[in-house]
Design a protein that fits this description.
Blueprint (H helix, E strand, L loop, with lengths): L1 E4 L6 E4 L5 E5 L2 H7 L4 E7 L8 E6 L2 E5 L6 E6 L5 E5 L13 E3 L22 H4 L4
Amino acid sequence: MLTARCYCGASRWTHDGPPLLVAYCHCGDCRRWTGAPVAAFAAFENTGLHIPGTRHSHTQGVERWNCSACGSPLAARFDYLPGQTYVPVGVLDQAETLQPALHSHADRALPWLHIDDDLPRAEASARDMLDPAR
């Protein structure tokens, strides 16, 4: 079982299974939302997943949830990845066990950030690798 919580602990949830995939995202939208130079997300099926918090959308085709009390980023859904919810790895209590498998938007990586790994790097969204139905 995976457990997650926001910074203040007011927003918590659990999930019975492992994520579908874990990936880095280098896009500017995710950097601004998480406040990090690169974001890492765990993808889960929407079925049986209830994310607490406040839902909002500032980018067409993207919904995001933040904790209503402290504002921590909690989850995101993207129209081009139907049936999936992306959770920032940092809010998961088992983050140390969730190693990313790829880089999306690698062409947007900050020039001073050097992650030395052999993971696949996709320019743009990597939707073909992120969506198992494709």
